[in-house]
Amino acid sequence: MEPNFQERYFKRNFASGVINGIFFNLALAFISGSTILPLFVSQLTGSDVLIGLSSTLETIGWLSPQLFVAGMTLYQKKQLPLYIKTAYFRVLAFLGLVLSVFFLGAKNPSLLLVLFFFFFAVYSLGGGFSGVAFMDIVGKTIPFNKRGSFFGMRMFFGGALAALAGILVKQILEHYQFPNNFGIIFSLAFCSILLGISSLLAVKEPPLTETKSRKSLKENLLQGIEIFKQHREFRLLYFVQIVIGAYVLGLPFYVIYAERLLKIPPELVGIFLTSQMIGFVLSNLFWGYLSNRGKNREILLITAIISSFPPLILFAYHFFMLPIFLYSSIFFFLGAINSGLNIGYMNYLLEIAPEPERPIYVGLLHTLTAPTIFLSAVGGIIIQVSSFTFLYILVLLISFGAIFISSKLKR
């Protein structure tokens, strides 16, 4: 690395990374796994399992290949070329999804359902390949004491736009019929994704001065096992990520519960989305403040506590007649959980991972947490064989476990 390389290009890299995050967080509003995707899939099928799977499909692609990708990139001095290559696949896949919605629509819902899962899976898998590269780029270009602000600004401004997008989504759902309403929403997501990917191309990435030799997948797996066995904080962070992340068990079904049991009109999904983005944005101010002061452990602990709020509020509606508009507070807290988990675990991981081995640490953690991506589908199975009540009792109990395990992390 050239002397003062990080400082020389800090403003440029910081701005490019923040703009990238703004547009991707805006895109997430239009493909929200807690509101938009479950509602879209529910128009094509009555299967709660498929509705649940749709909400975590992006996470499936994001997590699954990362240890494999880390092994590919560990010996590379620069990661930006891989990010650019995967961008082509992501853009083309999402364009295929948009065209499928417009041209198939209600004419062939079964085929549209299949194509949705195919194109969205390819798009998400591309995100998994670029995820390790992105995290390593951040680690090399953004100083430790600026990462809280970096991720906070990405999420704050992106979330603010996403909150406004929720109002737009409400208007689209009210004034356009299926499938054109979702075709328009997904088109807006496509434009945001394209702008987000393009903005990161301006980053000036310093090459690593020390790289690892190329290893086989087996060797990388053995190294990963050794890291998991020897590194206590990494091991604890993994368990924290699992238990807090288990909130996705009930994630897509808060909106389905509202539609089926509370008889809330589907158009109010836009209000739920806005509430979720407001929670996402406002909590970011707090998370960013804590992260810049090295308090990523506290972020994870507070996030674990907040993860108990959504099921508690749902139970309040189950037992009492409350105003419908208060139901949107569930989505406010879901936004705060999502934001806190992302900022807390990413910055904690970057703190404890040695720079030359950072791709392995990132890839290993994401690959180990990959099985949790099916929790939303498991939530659908639980509803089919039991009830909403049983599902959210389970979510609540797991949140208590998350509080206990998060308290064991060291600062």
Task: Identify the CATH class.
Answer: Mainly Alpha
Under CATH, the topology can be stated as Growth Hormone, Chain: A
Helix content: over 70%
What is the CA-atom radius of gyration, in angstroms? 21 Å
Q: How many strands, which pairing sense, and closed or not: the largest β-sheet?
A: none
Shape: globular
* Annotated CATH homologous superfamily: MFS general substrate transporter like domains
Which structural class fits the helix and strand makeup?
Answer: mainly alpha
State the domain count: 1
Distance separating the two termini? 29 Å
Q: pLDDT average, as an integer?
A: 80
Count of helices?
20
The CATH architecture designation is Up-down Bundle
* Beta fraction: under 5%
Number of strands: 0
Contiguous runs where pLDDT drops below 50 for at least 5 residues: none
Q: Name the helix and strand elements from N-terminus to C-terminus, one letter apiece.
A: HHHHHHHHHHHHHHHHHHHH
